[in-house]
From TrEMBL:
UniProt KW DNA-binding keyword: yes
Protein name: Resolvase/invertase-type recombinase catalytic domain-containing protein
Boundaries of every Resolvase/invertase-type recombinase catalytic domain copy: 1-68
PROSITE patterns hit by this protein: RECOMBINASES_1, RECOMBINASES_3
KW DNA-binding (keyword) present: yes
Organism (species): bioreactor metagenome
Length: 68
Protein backbone atom coordinates (compact mmCIF):
# COMPACT_ATOMS: atom_id res chain seq x y z
CA UNK A 1 0.00 0.00 0.00
CA UNK A 2 1.21 3.52 -0.74
CA UNK A 3 0.85 5.76 2.30
CA UNK A 4 1.48 9.51 2.15
CA UNK A 5 2.53 12.06 4.73
CA UNK A 6 1.75 15.73 4.14
CA UNK A 7 2.86 18.57 6.41
CA UNK A 8 2.54 22.34 6.23
CA UNK A 9 4.15 24.62 8.79
CA UNK A 10 1.10 26.68 9.70
CA UNK A 11 -2.67 26.26 9.69
CA UNK A 12 -2.85 29.13 7.17
CA UNK A 13 -0.93 27.12 4.56
CA UNK A 14 -2.67 24.86 2.07
CA UNK A 15 -1.92 21.13 1.68
CA UNK A 16 -3.53 20.92 -1.76
CA UNK A 17 -0.30 20.93 -3.80
CA UNK A 18 1.15 18.05 -1.78
CA UNK A 19 -2.15 16.15 -1.90
CA UNK A 20 -2.30 16.48 -5.70
CA UNK A 21 1.18 14.96 -5.92
CA UNK A 22 0.06 12.09 -3.68
CA UNK A 23 -3.00 11.44 -5.86
CA UNK A 24 -0.88 11.39 -9.03
CA UNK A 25 1.42 8.83 -7.41
CA UNK A 26 -1.49 6.56 -6.45
CA UNK A 27 -1.27 7.09 -2.70
CA UNK A 28 -4.15 5.27 -1.01
CA UNK A 29 -4.03 6.83 2.46
CA UNK A 30 -2.78 10.32 3.42
CA UNK A 31 -1.86 11.55 6.89
CA UNK A 32 -1.64 15.33 7.29
CA UNK A 33 -0.18 17.59 9.99
CA UNK A 34 -0.52 21.36 10.05
CA UNK A 35 2.26 22.51 12.35
CA UNK A 36 5.91 23.48 12.40
CA UNK A 37 8.62 20.91 11.81
CA UNK A 38 10.19 22.23 15.02
CA UNK A 39 7.27 20.69 16.90
CA UNK A 40 8.28 17.10 17.57
CA UNK A 41 4.75 16.12 18.61
CA UNK A 42 3.07 15.44 15.28
CA UNK A 43 -0.05 13.35 15.80
CA UNK A 44 -0.56 12.37 12.17
CA UNK A 45 3.08 11.40 11.67
CA UNK A 46 2.78 9.17 14.73
CA UNK A 47 -0.50 7.75 13.40
CA UNK A 48 1.11 7.03 10.03
CA UNK A 49 4.06 5.28 11.65
CA UNK A 50 1.61 3.10 13.60
CA UNK A 51 -0.43 2.39 10.47
CA UNK A 52 2.27 1.30 8.01
CA UNK A 53 3.22 -2.34 7.72
CA UNK A 54 6.13 -4.19 6.17
CA UNK A 55 5.95 -3.81 2.41
CA UNK A 56 4.12 -0.47 2.48
CA UNK A 57 5.67 2.51 0.73
CA UNK A 58 5.73 5.90 2.48
CA UNK A 59 5.54 8.87 0.09
CA UNK A 60 6.48 12.45 1.00
CA UNK A 61 6.74 15.46 -1.30
CA UNK A 62 10.08 16.37 0.27
CA UNK A 63 12.30 14.95 3.00
CA UNK A 64 11.86 18.28 4.78
CA UNK A 65 8.23 17.31 5.49
CA UNK A 66 9.56 14.59 7.78
CA UNK A 67 12.08 16.90 9.53
CA UNK A 68 12.58 15.13 12.81
Amino acid sequence: MKVGYVRVSTTAQNTERQEVIMARLGVERIFCDRLSGKNTERPQLSAMLGFVREGDVVVVESYSRLAL
